[in-house]
Amino acid sequence: MSEFKDSLEFEPAVETVAAGIEYWLMKEVGSSVVGRNKVLDDFQDWHHSLLLDYDDPGNVNARKNKNHYSQLINWTNGLVEYYDDFRPDQIDYALARQMFRAQMYLSGLFRVSCFMKATDQEDYYQRRLEITRSSIDVDPKIEISRSLYRLYDYIPDEAAIFPPALTLPELTSRTLKLNDEQQAYVRELHISGRNDIGQEESSTLDAIANMENKWIGHLVDYISFIASERGGQLSAVPFLEPKSISEDPQPYYPFAPTSD
What we know:
Layout: H1 3-8, H2 12-32, H3 43-50, H4 60-82, H5 88-117, H6 121-129, H7 140-152, H8 168-192, H9 203-229, E1 239-240, E2 251-252
Antiparallel strand pairs: 1-2
């Protein structure tokens, strides 16, 4: 383990942000296998989709990603257009919804990783739901640390002010660019992924980890932006509840102090 990682992973702000993200993912993964998204966890159906072309009408995996891709474009454009006219509660919801899509992409990337490694349905569930590990393939603290350094050249103290680092146009431009990268990854998955089925290490798994890091970094972009818009306070940053968007998840504040 590098001195860089050792020196950064214990920073309070990094630990706090990582805990908020990891808790959200753990709850979403647990609820998705019993809720309306349970259909996405069928081992045979997913492997059938993997072998199909990206634009094949029967490719459920690609079709769902296309829907998410278009949805995030619409949400992002709406955020830019109406941000100055939104009430505070509408701004909280709109920004939390942007992060919600990033979080759902993270959950989906982990789902693909589990499918790629698994040998059957039972093996998939064991990997997807194993409570002794994180619901993701990378250590989020590393990317959170890197992203904060990219924004500030230092890591803000958990109790200190998060100063402005990005404008809304800069932030949303990053969103649209990364959304395009996500779709490029899905396209490639349905070309080369079939060659990596059943392997614990592969170029496909490397690509998944790379996209996970990018979405974690982009969550940090949003968290820092929102905090800077609210007096610099991390505690004022909202997430949406970890459940399907069709179930109308509401904002909550994962970094706010809780009373005992």
